[in-house]
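User: Structure with zinc ion, tokens only please.
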Amino acid sequence: MHSQLAKEILERFLRYVVIDTMSDEEAVVTKRPSTDGQWDLLNLLADELKGMGITDLEVDEHGVVIARIPSNIDHAVPTVAFMAHVDTADDVNGNGVKPRVIEAYDGKDIPLNETYTLLAEENPELANYIGQTLIVTDGTTLLGSDDKAGVAEIMSIARHLASNPQIKHGVVEFIFTSDEETGAGMDSFPYEKISCDYCYTIDGGKRYEIESECFNAATVKVHFSGVSYHLGAARGRLVNALTMASFFINALPQAESPEATDGRYGYYCAQNISGTSTDVNLTLYLRDFDLDQLNRRIEALRSLAKTAEALYPHGKVAVDAKHVYYNMALVAKNKPFAMDNLLDAGKELGMELKSELIRGGTDGARMANERNIPCPNIFTGGHNLHSRFEWAALPAMEDAARLILKIIEVGSR
Ligand SMILES: [Zn+2]
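Assistant:
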């Protein structure tokens, strides 16, 4: 039998995933949110929060809903926030979702439709949920647990807190964002409207997985200027920018490429090149968990540019490096209570939380960097995200919600 909490999460999840909220990477440049369906869900959430009696509520024009439940304790504690995004990816169709609930999963393969089957062998996580409730797709779209599982979990806890004033807590903030999947979600984020000291994104996957570290990232633009000359009389005069650029790329250590690294190892990646024999523009992505290592690579590129200039006299190589985001662990170190409260909450619930590294960035990392707000990421119970084989496990979703509630409790002592 489902607990009251599990029932509520499932009911909310099934209602939210059928709202078309696929975001649009191109439209987002001029329109926030990029698609109207995202407003449908944002407005629905705002109405539901109001219906819970939550009055401290704001719907920002860029497509962010912020709600707060005031403190009901007499000592001051840091304000905690929980954040999830309403949009879905477009890797496969994210609209027209028809979720299917499987009660008492039997441990076997799950046919989604006549063509596609979710194979138990390829999804060993499924074996943890035999006899339990799963939600799958009909094989034609993704499911949208990324991140409507997070939305449903946060909304269920908001309702639980609002209707149980005997639960003691400090100020709790709930944030629902749009266009996360486009990568531009935080570009016009209304920081001035939030008041949290620390935040958690509920936007992960597998049960008990949490993420508190992401890459430091730099984008490096390298410009090669050659010297053009009539090819018939080029000897000793022509300097070919393409030759210089290919020397430069070939000199990058292959052992420090994305395809040769994992875990904590960082890399150089040539991402884009365009040009002619006189002018070449090269863009490189540098990534590392350790900021010193990232900066070492930037310096290495600068020396390499000097070497290229020495090897190709009169050729010029200009290096322009920009840090794009930083490992959120740097911020978390200044405000250790974000991780401490999360780990304590897990311990008290008997959940063995496992910290994973994100070989990328997150909205939480942006928030951490831009406002010094630590923002670890918590599992949602969704699997195979951005795929027609996406599935969610209700017990894991319930655990995510229980963890949210316990973090509130731990942070209010
Ligand atoms: Zn997500």
